[in-house]
Structures are given as C-alpha cells and as structure tokens.
Specification:
2 copies of one chain form a homodimer. Chain A is an alpha+beta fold and 254 residues long. Helices cover 19% and strands 27% of the residues of chain A.
Chain lengths: 254, 254
Amino acid sequence: MSPREARALFRAGLRVPTSGYCAGHTQANLIALPRELAFDFLLFAQRNPKSCPVLDVAEEGETRASILDGDLRTDLPAYRIYRHGELAAEVGDAREHWRDDLVAFLVGCSFTFEGALLDSGVPVRHIESGSNVPMYRTSRQCRPAGRLSGPLVVSMRPVPAERVPEAVRVTSRYPAVHGAPVHVGDPAALGITDIGRPDFGEPVDIRDGETPVFWACGVTPQAAVMASAPEFAIGHAPGHMAVTDARDTAHQIP
Amino acid sequence: MSPREARALFRAGLRVPTSGYCAGHTQANLIALPRELAFDFLLFAQRNPKSCPVLDVAEEGETRASILDGDLRTDLPAYRIYRHGELAAEVGDAREHWRDDLVAFLVGCSFTFEGALLDSGVPVRHIESGSNVPMYRTSRQCRPAGRLSGPLVVSMRPVPAERVPEAVRVTSRYPAVHGAPVHVGDPAALGITDIGRPDFGEPVDIRDGETPVFWACGVTPQAAVMASAPEFAIGHAPGHMAVTDARDTAHQIP
C-alpha cells in the first residue's frame, strides 16, 4: 500500500495503529500548538533531540506539510484534542477543532525503522501480534524550554538478548526517527513500575530470553502538553501516525 | 590552550580568527535576534540544517549558554552589530549593544572538524597560512522561514584531488558542525565569480592539483539578516568564533 492510499483510508474513517504500514516510508508524530507557543516547542525539540526530532514544520495556520501530500487535519487515523493539558476528545477528523493560529510540527517516529529491524532479523512483537506498540511515561525529565516541560516517553520492543546489539546498530542509523535506544533492560530504572500496563498503546509479551529495549518516543510532546497545560493543543492518537511520502532511507546515516 | 584560556584572551581584547584554536573542542557561530524573531530563526535553522545546525540556545535575555562557561557578549574575539540588515559596527565587546530581548543561538562551525582533517592527512590551507578561512555568498537560496530568507554561505578549503574522498568521509562524521561538503569543484556552479575575492574572511592559494571544496557555513544566518533586514541582530565577526567547552567528539557520529 502506498502512503497516499493509506492516507485515503484514514481520511475515509479507518482508525488503526500504523505500525507495519507502508514499509519503506517515514512515519511521523503530530503536535500542533498555538503560534505563541511555537518557539517554546521548537526549542524544547532542539533540547530533546532523541525524543523530538523535528522532520517538518507547517506555516502558521497551514494544514499541509512538505513531506506529506495531504491534509494534516484528516489524513491521520486519529487525533487527540487537549484543553489546558487535559485530554478533551479523541477524534478521527480534527477539522472542527483546528484553529488558524496553530503551528503543526511533524516529529520522527520509530515505526520508520521497524522495516530495517525486521530485515536484520530483529523481531517486532507488536507487529507480530497486530497490536499497538506499548509506550511508557518515564521518570526521566526532558530539558525544559520556556513554558514547556515534562517527562520522556519511550516505546518498548522486547528483543532476544543475542539480537540486542543488532537492534542498537540498526536503529543508530536513523537519528531523525529516534535513533539508538535510550535504555536496554530494567524498566524500573526508567521509573516504569508495571511493564504490563503501558501509559499509551497496548502491552506485549516479553518472552524468556528477551530483554525490553526502550526507544525515545514522539508522544513526548503530548506528555509535555499534559504536564505544562497550554491552553490548547492537537496531537495524533499514540501509534496512529502521519504516514509521509518521505522514504525511510532519507533519514538514514551510513 | 584550553577554551577557558582562549576566552580569557578574547575577553581581554585579542581579536583574531579562531581556526586552529583549542584543538579537540567545538567552535560555534553566534546569532542573537530579538525574541519576536526567535521562532522564525529556529525554523530557518530546522529547514536549513546543513548551514544552521543549532548547538545551543540561550534563554531570552540570557548571555550564558550551556556549552560555554562564559559570557556571550565578551568571550568571542569580535562581533558584528546589524541594524535593519546593515552592518552598523564591528566590536570586540558587545555589552553596550546587547539587549534584554535578545535570544542567542550558537550554530556549529566547521573549524570543529579541522583537527580531524589534519589527523587524516588533509591539509588546511588557511591554518598553514595563518589567515582567516575564505567564505562566499552563493547563488543558492536557503529555504525561507517566516520573515527570514537569504543565500547559503559556504567556506572553502583547497584539497589535493586524491584527498577529496577522505575530506568528504571525515567531515561526514560531523553533521552538527556542517558535515559533508555541499559542493566539490567549480565555484561558478555556486554563483561564485571570483574565488580570489571572498565575501568574508581572506583568500587562500589554490595550488596545482587541488580542488576547491565547499562546506556550508554558519555565517548563513548573518547573510539572512542582511537579506531580510530585521530591526536588530548581533553576530560574531566571521571566523572569530565562540570557542566552547564541548569536545568535538560530542558531535561525531560513527
């Protein structure tokens, strides 16, 4: 399926996580904030590049981005609307909530490197099980910027112990979509008390001989929205990403 | 000489280009703009990452940065003051010009990888000749952002033809300080009509068997200031950089 075809399905109402969709293409997190917070957010991203690698920024009020030939308000499977840091709604179409003063940011997503993991013989459990990736709010704080602060959010993939080095090596080549893991092993060291109960997405089995491996996650901006309570924000529903037209190789380093 | 010692000399009045100073440490370009232009500039940098890799951003009104234990108004060898896009003054101490509404950005500088070039057997002519690096305004336009637009500025180093691949390979490992060259060979293709007359810095000899190699340059923000004429800006004097405490290896990729 091409990114264009996937976006047409999402626009028509399909609400599914996008992991495994459109192999070979870059996926992105969405965060749209009022213009008066745009500098704070771009600075937050600059200071937290592992979790917030900015791929594209739309002009104020614009609903199109250069890496995606579509409408940012309709072409993702689902959206979250925040008012004063509270989740006010989850919707499949954000048009009635969008405002002219919003600046939309697209942030790299680790779904982008999952094809490369599979190609290298590293299994991806949530693709095998057809579920959403598990994501966790950690006890690690991001570097604040202006009025924005909040915890690092991570995604987790269980990796057979002998494949962990390969998982690190492969994902290191994709810094623009979170790159190398931030943590390998003990969830408690990240302040995660129950690995079976993710804060976003769905749990996955961790089998004997597997180690949980944690990557920085583009839900981090939404955790900052929840922690910092700006008046208004729109994000994607976690795991329900913008599927862009950019090739994954465009974000690969040697 | 340590970065701290170098900064003390500059603070005391020494005005020299910093190429070759404090090998092993990261050098940075300075651009300070009024807060109301800060988002436009950070977006300009995001859209032009080869020329404007942001290393650090000081809070509004702050004159300290996290990668440099010193005062941004005094610890560079020289500064340029711009009013409405015109160069109004070049000074060794920017304190009397600094304003409380300025946001200071530090942008990676290619001087940072010159030690690695030398270590790899690639000569650096302006270090040999004790002169400032030659820099040129090109005919290549940056991607605009908000009220900021302008041409790409490049630095040039003549490289023996057989060492060009090594020069590309070595500098590719330092994307945060401009990374790989943007152009190898014909200056005319970049709209440079007289290689002997750089727009900034000083000319260097190009000897038989050498090819001019061009890297994106952190004077690009100042070219955008000249082209876009914001009410006020402060930059470093080209070639007269902020010598930071960050190791060059901190910005190296495998």
